Amino acid sequence: MIFVQLGILLAMILIGSQMKGIGLGVMGMVGLMIFVLVFKMTPAEPPFAVLLIILAIVTTAATLQAAGGLDYLVSIAEKIIRKNPSQITFIAPFTTYFLCLFAGTAHIVYSLLPIIAEVAAKQRIRPERPLSVSVIASHLAITGSPMSAATASLVAILAYSTASIDIMKICIPASIVGIFVSILVVRKKGVELDKDPIFLEKMKDPEFARSMDPTDTSGGKNHYQAAPGAKIAVGIFGLAILMIILFGAFPHLVPHVGGAKSFSVNADGTISLTSLIIMITLTASALMMLITKTSATKVAKMSLFTSMATAVVSVLGVVWMSATFMAANEAVIAHTFKDIVAEHPWTFAFALFLMGALTFSQAATTRTIMPMGVALGIVNPHLIAMFPAVSGDFLLPGYPTLVAAIDFDRTGSTKIGKYVLNHSFMVPGLVALSVAIIVGFALTGIFF
Fold first, then answer.
1. pLDDT at site 339
2. Helix 362-375 and helix 303-328: axis angle, to 10°?
3. What is the pTM of this model?
4. CA 428, CA 127: separation in Å to the nearest integer?
5. How large a percentage of the chain has pLDDT more than 90?
6. What is the predicted pLDDT for the residue at 332?
7. Cα separation of 51 and 54, whole Å?
8. Whole-number Å distance between alpha carbons of 62 and 303
């Protein structure tokens, strides 16, 4: 029976991922209905914590966007990328990583992709190289950023005071090493641009050839002027990150309020870190609005804010369905996999990777699969080491950042292959994640 139920779960995820948008969430609810009405399963607890975290963090990021803070950060990143164009294959991925690490969202990469593609092409560097690794870097940044919903979700699941700091000190250096190795692997990938037949054919068009002229700067210097409150908004956002890090690093700073254990209060009477993250981020959002005079209406119209509805519906549907399936079959799953995972804990990374590829959501994957890892007895350091595996959303080339990179590369070097899976992002993605996980395990031996 479990295989029939698993088939239904995977079918709902596959159909939902093809529908795009909120499709994953609504199909998740269809699966939940089937589990409850047909298989008489008891519905699991809805993922209230991760939903509230997504709401708070994305609202804060949207406020930063409305105040002009994201544009200001992008302008800094653009200057760094353009300063040494001949080294763009190395510079672009790390610039992207740290920008997304600070912002807590990979969606900011959309602003950098056309810049990376243009600079690379004019230097006659195959754009596929910096673009592919930059996209993977933007995904890896989420599994280490204290402002990402995925990281906050893992903090809530691990539920110990220094979880956020441990995630950062393992995942950030591990991801940096993974990105570096990935760059080395792709730095000579494909034929050189000036020998690429597709590019040479495009160069026969005079207008296209003119746009590829290295001396043409019409696409670069747009004389960006920061919005009046942009720098202040970035400062407030940075202060919020610092506060989250401080409370995670120094548990004795967390307020002790007493009372019974609840969503907001730990068993020892201190405020839960999940609650603190929500309070800090939304307070930062309020301060940005008040100090920079950013309209709350404007915040609600930002692309990041509107994307929150999709994220909330998707996480609610797929996580609630998956949690119900896991709870109903916990004994069977534990009996089947506990010995394997106990002997080879790294094998759990495959489950994280495949679910990430199916859901296209690092937060949903974290909330769905990580509790299983806890139930199977995998120790916290090993779960943290495997955290980058939730970034398997590049496996199927349908994730928006991958599609955008392909579209922005006018030379045609970044593409989906004939067999779909042999696309431009497969090699750098597999290398970066594999190395990050291996380094993560090595670091756990040092820090724990």
1. 72
2. 30
3. 0.80
4. 14
5. 38
6. 81
7. 5
8. 7
| Residue 358 amino acid letter | L
- At 218 the pLDDT is 54
Angle subtended at Cα 311 by Cα 310 and Cα 315, rounded to the nearest 5 degrees: 120
- Which regions in the chain score pLDDT beneath 70? 20, 215-224
**429 HSE (CA, 13 A, CB side):** 27
Burial class (CB in 10 A: 0-12, 13-18, 19+), 162: middle
Q: Which amino acid, residue 392?
A: G
Please write down the HEC assignment for all residues of the chain: CHHHHHHHHHHHHHHHHHHCCCHHHHHHHHHHHHHHHCCCCCCCCCCHHHHHHHHHHHHHHHHHHHCCHHHHHHHHHHHHHHHCHHHHHHHHHHHHHHHHHHHCCHHHHHHCHHHHHHHHHHCCCCCHHHHHHHHHHHHHCCCCCCCCHHHHHHHHHHCCCCHHHHHHHHHHHHHHHHHHHHHHHHCCCCCCHHHCHHHHHHCCCHHHHHHCCCCCCCCCCCCCCCCCCHHHHHHHHHHHHHHHHHHHHCHHHCCECCCCCCCCECCCCEECHHHHHHHHHHHHHHHHHHHHCCCHHHHHCCHHHHHHHHHHHHHHHHHHHHHHHHHHCHHHHHHHHHHHHHHCHHHHHHHHHHHHHHHCCHHHHHHHHHHHHHHCCCCHHHHHHCHHHHHHHHCCCCCHHHHHHHHHCCCCCCCCCCCCCCCCCHHHHHHHHHHHHHHHHHHHHHHC
Which token pair is 115?
A: 């810049």
- Return d(Cα 160, Cα 266) in angstroms, integer: 9
